[in-house]
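From the shared-data thread, chain only:
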Amino acid sequence: MLDFTMDGEVQKHRKQLVAKTAARQTVSITQYRDLVRRYNRFLARYDDLKNQLQFYRGQCQDLECELRAIHPEVYQAYQKIDRQEKRLNKLEAENILLRKELAGIKEKLHQQPKVLPAFVKANVSPDQPRLRPGRKVGHAPALRPLPEKIDAYIEVYCGSRKWRNGLRD
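Structure, as tokens:
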């Protein structure tokens, strides 16, 4: 519990007032009014601090209630985090093992001689120039020969709705 005490100046004046009244000395009205003003300021400050204390106590109780309500969820979250960390560690170890295995396989692959399948053409050396595809310029075309006898001539018109040879005009 907080202990509220008067500030040193008010205590000093109070002691002086008590000493004067004990010695039956008279206190001037200005000294008395000054002391009363300081005492009233002290009481106002005391009330403010008391109200703040009550406010913070209420907030503390609210937060404790929220903490009690959230505690199971936090516990479950920590359990989930632990499970995921274990899984992560397991996967990292597996990843390291697989990387080592992959490195070993790559090493074996680089050591084996390269044999091309029968259907693959061997690479041409870069020293030889590549040939252009197709026939040389001026070469006679190799077309299908025309038939000896043509049985029928049919006119075909594309791009219009009119048909020829009496089918539709």
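The chain has a mean pLDDT of 82.
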